[in-house]
Design goal:
single chain, mainly alpha, 5 helices, 0% strand, rod-shaped
Length: 293
């Protein structure tokens, strides 16, 4: 028994939650307003039915009143003719008609009172329905504005379901774009290296590619050799220029200062104004050992 109660409670809770999620206050208000209109229509129909009954009783009362008046006239005429029996019969019928008329008058008064009550109730209900309609429209407008504001805020914050789907779509598009860019770059590199053939331009010639690579390498080696040659050619000139300078300095020294060791320049006070340097062929030969100047 306890398990069944728990199952029933869980089912009711789930159903209540599902209904609460599916319920739209605007639809509920419209339905309530529709029910009130139906009730108001029934009340008005009841008022019309009571008024119809009252009118029918009124017609019957008029007929009975006319019949009673007619019977009274007949009784007078019968008495005038000396027919008392006919006058008595007419008066008896008049009494019966008058009794029916009295009953109809009581019914008429009751129907008239009921009609007045229903009319007042209908007017009150009409006022309530009008007030409910105004409040309903106000609540619906407020709810719609709040719902729109909530959706706008959710869209700005990115937590709405639609914007979440849009964000995921944008992310997928960016990922696919990056993947396609990477694939295009990889294919370009493979085509440039010769690993892939150009299906539109025709099959690439591997031998020609190899020759082109060798030619490019030969051009690089040739340029390297040229640079090396220029550097090698400039190095002897620098050495020759340094040797000529040393020989000229030795030629300008006095004979007594010639020595095998490194040349030591004279002190500053012993230097004189240098003369013009003669040509190398005009210089005197260096003295031999034991010979004087």
């Amino acid at each position: 028994m306890g398990v069944m109660k728990r199952v029933s409670l869980v089912f009711k809770a789930k159903a209540n939650k599902a209904l609460d999620k599916m319920e739209d206050p605007r639809e509920t208000l419209d339905y309530s307003y529709q029910r009130q209109l139906e009730l108001l229509t029934k009340v008005r129909r009841g008022v019309a039915d009571v008024a119809t009954s009252r009118k029918r009783v009124e017609l019957q009362m008029n007929q009975l009143q006319q019949q009673a008046n007619k019977l009274e006239d007949q009784a007078r005429k019968a008495l005038g003719m000396g027919r008392e029996d006919l006058a008595r019969a007419a008066l008896e019928r008049k009494a019966s008609a008058q009794s029916q008329l009295n009953d109809l008058q009581a019914q008429y008064a009751s129907l008239q009172a009921e009609e007045e009550k229903l009319t007042v109730a209908s007017q009150r209900l009409q006022a309530k329905v009008d007030a409910f309609r105004t409040r309903k429209e106000t609540i619906k407008a407020t709810y719609t504005a709040a719902e729109a504001q909530t959706r706008i805020n959710e869209a700005f914050s990115g937590i709405s379901e639609e914007m979440g789907d849009v964000g995921m779509a944008i992310q997928r598009a960016e990922d696919k774009t990056a993947q396609m860019q990477a694939r295009a770059g990889a294919i370009d590199e493979l085509m440039a290296s010769g690993a892939l053939d150009d299906a539109v331009g025709g099959q690439r010639d591997d031998i020609q590619n190899e020759l082109d690579m060798m030619a490019a390498s030969s051009d690089v080696e040739r340029e390297l050799s040229r640079l090396k040659g220029e550097i090698s050619a400039s190095a002897p000139k620098q050495l020759e220029g340094g040797a000529n300078g040393n020989s000229q300095e030795q030629a300008q020294r006095p004979a007594g200062q010639q020595q095998s060791g490194p040349y030591a320049p004279p002190p500053p006070q012993a230097q004189t104004q240098p003369a013009s340097i003669p040509a190398t062929s005009d210089l005197p030969a260096e003295p031999q050992d034991g010979e004087g100047p």
